[in-house]
Amino acid sequence: MDFLRALPFGTRVVVRRREDDGFHDALGDLVGIDDATYTVATRTGPVTLPLSTVTHAKTVPPPPRRRAARLPLREKP
């Protein structure tokens, strides 16, 4: 948890947490942390979870760039 507290906001992280049904990951930008919770801005929206459930955390590189859309094949004359 000290690791998360030391990171600047906006750092891309993956945080593994233990819940009753097993382990879950939150991947995104660290946008908030206080004495009891942390918030990660994931692709589907912000997730605020208790620090007490954290088992592992690490920084990760930015996501890969999206590929350009494929164009349909042209018919041969």
Query: What general form does the structure show?
Result: elongated
The number of helical runs is: 1
CATH architecture classification: Roll
**Helix/strand/pairing class, anyone?**
mainly beta
Number of strands: 5
- In total, the number of domains comes to 1
Could you outline the blueprint of secondary structure elements for this entry?
Layout: H1 2-6, E1 12-19, E2 22-33, E3 37-42, E4 45-50, E5 54-59
Antiparallel strand pairs: 1-2, 1-5, 2-3, 3-4
Walk me through what this model shows.
The chain is mainly beta. It has one helix at residues 2-6; strands spanning 12-19, 22-33, 37-42, 45-50, 54-59. It has a single domain (2-59), classed as SH3 type barrels (Roll). The mean pLDDT is 90.
Write a concise synopsis of the structure shown:
The chain is mainly β and 77 residues long. Helix content is 6%, strand content 49%.
Kindly list the characteristics that best describe this protein.
elongated, 49% strand, 77 residues, SH3 type barrels, five-stranded antiparallel sheet, 5 strands, 6% helix, 1 helix, mainly beta
